[in-house]
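hiii so um. not sure if this is the right channel but i have a protein structure encoded as tokens and i wanna go backwards to a sequence. like what aa goes where. can anyone help
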């Protein structure tokens, strides 16, 4: 099918690594008390391009310790976010070098505005095993208990970036309150999104508090010694 797409299609396929694909095989069936699907992707050489992102060590049973035993839904994957971003920038450069330079320039401007680097201070601080699950025992009904967990490699760096982000958000909230102060009743907070926090197990949990808007969630995050935990409600963190 590639010749039908012209030179750009061939170039795109090579950049993504699709041109090295040989065959794909999949089999599904019952095993024990569940259903299992196994897939096999054959290539003519080592994975490259976009397919290079799947070239990583497999998950082990011990890696799944973060997922509660009563989880009704769970996704677990090994994903190196820093490597993925680098690969994305590399692929953009293969198609349009000027777009790659523009992307890097905008990313540098964002880093300067935030006071920290998304790549070096946030993404690089995270591990490569990611989990998303829903647990009834932790208060989740259907999907309201969705919780994401990822290991933290550099807690100090991640905390520093988090504090800078919180400072920016709080400054914006204070400015919003000042600008809206004359139009509000005394002692009443203006509508908007406010970042609140509380202490739990010796650490601080941050959550979004929606004021004046009918939002049924209070997304929150907690940086522990070993993990970053994100959920829809604080009770899942607890």
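sure thing!! here u go:
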């Amino acid at each position: 099918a590639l010749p039908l797409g012209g030179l750009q299609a061939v170039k795109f396929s090579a950049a993504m690594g699709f041109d090295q694909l040989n065959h794909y095989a999949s089999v599904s069936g019952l095993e024990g008390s569940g259903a299992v699907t196994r897939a096999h992707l054959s290539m003519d050489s080592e994975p490259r391009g976009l397919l290079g992102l799947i070239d990583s060590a497999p998950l082990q049973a011990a890696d799944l310790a973060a997922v509660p035993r009563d989880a009704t839904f769970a996704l677990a994957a090994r994903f190196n976010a820093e490597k993925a971003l680098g690969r994305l920038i590399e692929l953009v450069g293969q198609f349009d070098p000027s777009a790659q330079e523009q992307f890097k320039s905008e990313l540098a401007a964002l880093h300067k505005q935030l006071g920290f680097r998304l790549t070096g201070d946030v993404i690089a601080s995270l591990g490569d095993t990611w989990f998303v699950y829903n647990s009834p025992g932790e208060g989740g009904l259907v999907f309201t208990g969705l919780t994401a967990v990822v290991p933290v490699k550099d807690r100090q760096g991640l905390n520093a970036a988090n504090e800078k982000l919180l400072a920016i958000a709080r400054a914006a909230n204070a400015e919003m309150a000042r600008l809206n102060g004359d139009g509000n009743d005394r002692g009443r907070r203006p509508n908007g999104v406010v970042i609140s926090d509380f202490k739990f197990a010796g650490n601080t949990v941050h959550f979004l508090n929606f004021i004046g808007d009918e939002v049924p969630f209070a997304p929150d995050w907690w940086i522990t010694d070993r993990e970053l935990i994100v959920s829809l409600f604080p009770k899942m963190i607890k």
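oh and The radius of gyration is 22 Å.
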